[in-house]
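Duplicate of #3305? Posting structure anyway:
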C-alpha cells in the first residue's frame, strides 16, 4: 500500500475543490499516481484511514488510500468517499461503465458528430456507448473508408459549436490511414484511431472464447482469413460479425486501445471550448 504523502502545495496555488464521489460497488475509476484502473469491489476502514479496493479487467485487486483528489472518474479528478450505509449496493451502470441516469431522455442531437469507418464500427459503439451518446446528443455516422477524409471534413465544416470526431481503423505510423489522418488540420476536428486492422480485433479474444485473433498473411482478405482460421463460414462475414457483436456486453469486452479513443472523441465533441 502506498504511504500517504501530505499535500505541501501552498493554499493559494492549490486547485479548486473537486467533487466527492461515493465509492459505490462497481464504480470504475483510475488511481492518479499509478494509473491503475478498475471497478470498486470493497471499501474498508483501517488504522491509516479508509481504503478502496479496485479490480482491473484482468481480475487483479489493489487497495488504495482514499486520499483527496486521488482518483479519476471519466477523466476528471475526484475525491472518493465512503458510501452511505443506506445507499445502493450495486448502482445501475451503462455498458460503457458510466453511472446510468434512470428516466433520462435523449438530448436533441448536437451539431457535432462522430464519424467511424463502417457499419460494424458504428454498431459496436452503439452497443457499448449508445446510452451515453443519447444523453449527450451525439450522433454517430459511418464512412466507407477514409480515402476522402480531408474532403469529408471540409464539407462538414467543423467549428466551435459543431466539432467533428473521427475514429480510424489501423491508425499506426507509416500506414495510408496515418498519412490521411495527419492531413486533417482543422482545430475543430479530432482524428484518432486504434491499431487494429479491423474493428473486429478490438473485441477481446477471451470474450469470444478464443485464445487470440488469427494472424492473416498480407494480401489476403482479413475477414475471410479470420473466418477460415476459426472455422466459421467463410462466405458470410456478416454472420460472423453478428456472432462477435453478440458477445459484447460492456466495455469489459473491448480492448483498452479502443476504449480510450472513443472516450476521447466523446469528450472532444461534447466539451464546450473555453
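Output from current build:
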Amino acid at each position: 500500500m502506498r504511504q500517504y504523502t501530505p499535500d505541501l502545495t501552498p493554499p493559494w496555488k492549490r486547485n479548486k475543490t473537486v467533487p466527492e464521489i461515493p465509492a459505490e460497488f462497481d464504480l470504475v475509476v483510475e488511481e492518479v499516481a499509478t494509473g491503475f484502473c478498475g471497478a470498486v469491489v470493497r471499501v474498508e476502514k483501517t488504522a491509516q484511514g479508509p481504503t478502496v479496493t479496485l479490480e482491473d479487467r484482468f481480475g487483479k485487486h489493489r487497495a488504495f488510500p482514499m486520499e483527496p483528489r486521488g482518483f479519476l472518474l471519466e477523466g476528471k479528478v475526484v475525491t472518493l468517499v465512503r458510501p452511505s450505509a443506506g445507499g445502493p449496493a450495486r448502482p445501475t451502470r451503462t455498458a460503457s461503465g458510466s453511472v446510468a441516469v434512470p428516466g433520462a431522455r435523449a438530448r436533441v442531437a448536437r451539431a457535432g458528430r462522430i464519424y467511424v469507418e463502417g457499419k460494424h464500427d458504428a454498431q459496436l459503439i452503439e452497443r457499448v456507448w449508445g446510452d451515453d451518446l443519447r444523453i449527450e446528443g451525439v450522433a454517430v455516422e459511418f464512412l466507407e473508408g477514409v480515402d476522402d477524409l480531408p474532403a469529408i471534413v471540409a464539407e462538414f465544416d467543423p467549428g466551435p459549436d459543431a466539432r467533428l470526431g473521427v475514429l480510424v481503423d489501423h491508425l499506426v505510423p507509416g500506414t495510408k490511414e496515418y498519412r490521411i489522418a495527419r492531413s486533417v488540420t482543422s482545430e475543430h476536428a479530432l482524428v484518432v484511431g486504434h491499431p487494429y486492422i479491423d474493428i473486429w480485433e478490438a473485441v477481446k479474444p477471451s470474450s469470444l472464447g478464443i485464445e487470440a485473433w488469427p494472424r492473416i498473411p498480407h494480401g489476403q482478405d482479413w475477414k475471410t482469413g479470420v473466418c477460415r482460421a476459426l472455422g466459421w463460414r467463410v462466405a458470410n462475414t456478416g454472420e460472423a460479425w453478428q456472432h462477435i457483436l453478440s458477445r459484447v456486453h460492456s466495455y469489459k469486452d473491448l480492448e483498452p486501445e479502443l476504449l480510450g479513443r472513443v472516450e476521447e472523441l466523446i469528450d472532444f465533441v461534447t466539451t464546450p471550448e473555453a
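Confirmed duplicate; merging threads. Residues 86-91 have pLDDT under 50 and may be disordered. The first strand starts at residue 20 and ends at 22.
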